[in-house]
Amino acid sequence: MNELWPRLLVNYPYLAAAILFVIGTFTVLTHPNLFKKLLGINIMESAIFLTFVASGNIRGGVAPIRATANAEAVYINPLPSALMLTGIVVSVSVTAFALALIVRLYRVYGTTDLRRIVVRRKEVTGDDGFAQG
Amino acid sequence: MLALVLALSSGAVGGLLVAVLPAARSRLRNLVVLFFTVGGILGSWQVARLVWAGERLRLAGQLGGLSFSLEPDPLGVIFGLIASTLWLFTVVYSFGYMAGKAHQRPYYSFLLLAFSVTLGVAFSGNLVALYLFYELLTLTTYPLVIQERSEEALRAGTKYLLYNLAGAAVLLLAIVLTAVWGGRLDFAGGPILAGGFKIGLNWLLFLFTVGFGVKAALMPLHRWLPAAMVAPTPVSALLHAVAVVYAGVYGLLRVVYSVFGTGLLAELGVGALLPWVAAGTILAGIIVALRQDELKRRLAYQTISHLSYILLGAITLHPWGLAGAVLQMIGYAVLKTAFFFCVGLIAEQTGVTRVSRMGGVGRVLPKTMAAFAVTTMGMIGMLPLGTFWGKYYLLQGSVAGGKWPLAVVLVVSGFLNAVCFIPVVVKAFRAERTPSPAPEEGGVRVALMLAPTLLLVVIGLGMGLFPGLVWPGVQAVVDWFF
Amino acid sequence: MTALLRANLPVLVVIAPLFIAFILTPLARRIRLVETLAFLATVLGLGAAGHLATVVFARRGSPFIYQLGGWPPPWGIELVAGNLGVIFALVVTGVSVPVVLFARGNLTAEVGDTGRVTRFYVLYLLLVGALAGMAVTNDLFNIYVLVEVVTLSCCGLVSARRHPRAAEAAFTYLILATLGSAFVLGGIGLIYMLTGHLNMGFAGQELGRVWPDYPHTVLLAVSFVIIGFGVKAAVFPLHVWLPDAHATAPSPASAILSGLAVKGYLLCLLKFLYGVFGGVLLRELAVHRILTLLGVAGIIAGSLLALTQEELKRRLAYSTVAQVGYLVLGGGLLNATGLTGALFYLASHAVIKATLFLAAGAIQAATGKSRIRELAGVGRKMPLTMAAFTIGSCGLIGLPLFFGFIGKWYLLVGSLEAGMILPVVAILAGSVLCAAYLLPVIRTAYFRPAPAVAWRDPGRPQKLALLLLATAVVVLGVRPGPFLELARKAAAELMAFV
């Protein structure tokens, strides 16, 4: 146990990632507001990105660009960062799509609160075959 | 080979043909139904002749890694002959009974489909084929159960499906286990599991008993059978006294003689228990029947009781017991069908469906009630009728098999059968009042129903007086297994 | 030319639908052309998958390996088309053809104007391409990208209807699916940290060496992967998004979502569990027990929930939850027989569920009714549709001579070989419950009197699609031999890691 804290502190990016992941997951699952849910998703994804990027990092290393670096410099691993670029693109498109859906829901229900949507569902949609919860 | 294909396919082809014929062409439809039924009968008689002559008929295929075969043996042939012969009588009776009723097209269509499926059960040569036809039998007879389309019929139909499908699921498990332990599934070539004793075999036998026991209406798995009596009477007569329930009994006979074998079964604890389950069902069934006021329900519980006669004979593991079981299968099927036909005749002509209102029926329907009286004798197992011989060998078999208390059960059951039905006959002939509306035993419709009934009674009498007529078939079964 | 084609075959299965998807958008005005192109794209995919199958068979066991861009692993992305890839590619492309045929000329009622219909096809083709990609890819990050493509296109398909409930279902699905993706990505990140590889083969080998040093990290990675794919594949109890999403989507989309998309995630899960973590690790962490239990719970709970649904498509959606249980269970048995059964069942369920959803969609389109008790007389008025539904039901219940039976048989035998009774009971109970929730539909459709309304079978392409699928259910049920052989080989490939 005594060794745990120093080790966690040395690996502080992972600690931060874990905390962010938990905050994000918790927000997604418990918050009734659609925007907050989306934010939670984004926080979760940031945590994952952080983990990835941190795993490629080497303290004191330099960016692996041939022209500027000297021969004996330690390069950091560029692959995780490159992958996370893809991850961020995916995350942005998910966010855009979710925002579009939220706008659509807001136009129909006049609210972004899930609890109020459930209440207003019946009066707005009526009984058209999808009435079952 | 051709005969086998003819027997199996004529019902299916006829059923599909009926399904596409215009609903209004009832005369043409009846002709088609009759034609394909006769075709099926000719096929199955030819199959029987060939099998008795010692020929090996086999249709086989592969289903993935599973083999799938049809290969009738003497026991299957007997079942097939009973079913196909009685099918003809039922079809003729139906022409009278169903005339003018609604939903005739689906009725005849599924009746013919069920014919093919029943013969499939009878002629199946391994457990996969047997399972397939067993499952199909449930599905093809379901529409016949809900023929009336009333709420009560639909409820009964649901019960029918759930009991039988659940039974089939248990059966599937038993078959998978047999495949894993026994390594093959074909009936030909002796008992599948004869190789050796294994720990789980008791459970396997239990699973088989439950799986087939549902259709054989072993108590306490029998509840669907009385419920299924909402079906039209010909259906009750043929399917729920003979074809469907015999499929279960036949399956159990297969389990005893083709899956486990007599030697192995004698070593198993559950095997020793089975006769007592059968004996319990015999007595409980007939006692519950005593308390039923509705005639068809009374007959249904009596069916439950009588099916276990057959089982009892098979489980004595003695040649005489098996002979008794087969004789009982034949004799009982003929007379029970006639019995149900009588009940249908009474209900159709006088509207009487309850025992308490039977008074005076014998006065207005003398022929029907005479037939009713004779079949009653048969149910008790009295001499001039075919069922006597079955009972005789059953008694002999149980004593010879060292289980004399079972003989006592049989005697008591015969007595209870007498208590159950003789008062009904007596009551019907005592003129308490004339049932209304006033009926007449005349007209084409009634003749179509009465003729097969009387003919069946005559056949039952003939089998009692000349048991030698059916004995070669019985002998073939006994020789096959012992 | 043919040599070039043959050399690039695994990519063709993936990129044919993807590329055609991108050229559809500007053609929105000419909807007939869009439909034809979409159909051709799926047919092309099927052709490529069939050709791929013959190539793989000709190689007798050694998989067909393709290096994207000519980069060898561990640097480049590798596509591996073994028997597992072939079976899934065949299923995906095979089912996608009748589904797109069914959509032809039939979507405007459900989706809206031609622009929206075109977008539907774009998403559809993206989905098919990405699923085919899942079949052949051998790279962890590539799997993540494909998973995201599938997720986004699925969400798009779910939200295709204008109905507010569709938007709601799509939002729930999107949020939960993204949650699942985050878990998957986290799991991939952990595996990468442990092994330094993204190629599945290399990562698996390395993980087999290093896992005793990092037991907690490995456990975390396994749980992330299972939860992530579990949410996406609707493994009970992570299925909450599925019924809404699958019941509100347009029918062709429901068919493809229930039939294929869910299976894609399950395939990825199997690839991860067997190919990366390996059998030793699974046994060590008792993952296979967890999978079996999840499967059993899914079968029972999904079937019971399906029983209580009044709406046809919703009932079918819950049934999917139950059927996913069979596949998870088969994956958890850790023996070749069970896995064969699971893979065979995967294929049969894909075909059968597509049949059922399309038939349900046709009924809904013709009658405007979605509740089961309102379907009285449909069997009389729409004979072909209802016949297809009946055949599909028989298959799902698992009657012999229909497609579903052999899969169930092998699952049963596999469970017995693994010495487990609980899965056996669940499989059998699942069959009975399946009959209990599907047969009432058939009963109502055939045996209740029809109202005097003129309903008709749908148009010719729809009929053809239903006919194709129903025929497949019967033909593959009567002659399962070659397909079973393929499933057996695919299972052997996975079992090689155990």
Please give a handful of descriptors for the protein shown.
heterotrimer; B: 482 residues; mainly alpha; two-stranded antiparallel sheet; 2 strands; globular; C: 498 residues; two-stranded antiparallel ribbon; 21 helices; 78% helix; 2% strand
**Helical amount of chain A:** 55-70%
Beta content of chain A comes to under 5%
For the sheet with most strands of chain B, the description reads: 2 strands, antiparallel
Tally of separate helices of chain B: 18
In summary, what is this structure?
The complex is a heterotrimer of chains A (133), B (482) and C (498). Chain A is mostly helical and 133 residues long.
Task: Describe the protein's architecture and organization.
The complex is a heterotrimer of chains A (133), B (482) and C (498). Chain A has 133 residues and is an all-alpha fold. In chain A, 70% of the residues lie in helices and 0% in strands. The model of chain A is unreliable at 127-133 (pLDDT under 50). With 482 residues, chain B is mostly helical. Chain B has a domain at 268-482. Chain B contains 18 helices and 2 strands. The relative contact order of chain B is 0.10. Chain C is mostly helical and 498 residues long. Chain C has 3 domains: 1-136; 144-284, no CATH class; 286-498, no CATH class. Chain C is built from 21 helices and 2 strands. Chain C has helices at residues 2-7, 9-24, 31-58, 83-103, 108-111, 114-136, 140-158, 164-195, 200-210, 215-232, 242-248, 251-284, 287-307, 312-332, 336-367, 378-381, 383-397, 403-417, 422-447, 460-478, 481-495, and strands at residues 64-67, 78-81. A two-stranded antiparallel ribbon of chain C has the order 1-2. The longest helix of chain C has 34 residues, at 251-284. The radius of gyration of chain C is 21 Å and the shape is globular. The model of chain C has no long low-confidence stretch (mean pLDDT 87). Chains B and C meet through helix 5 and helix 6 of B and helix 18 and helix 19 of C.
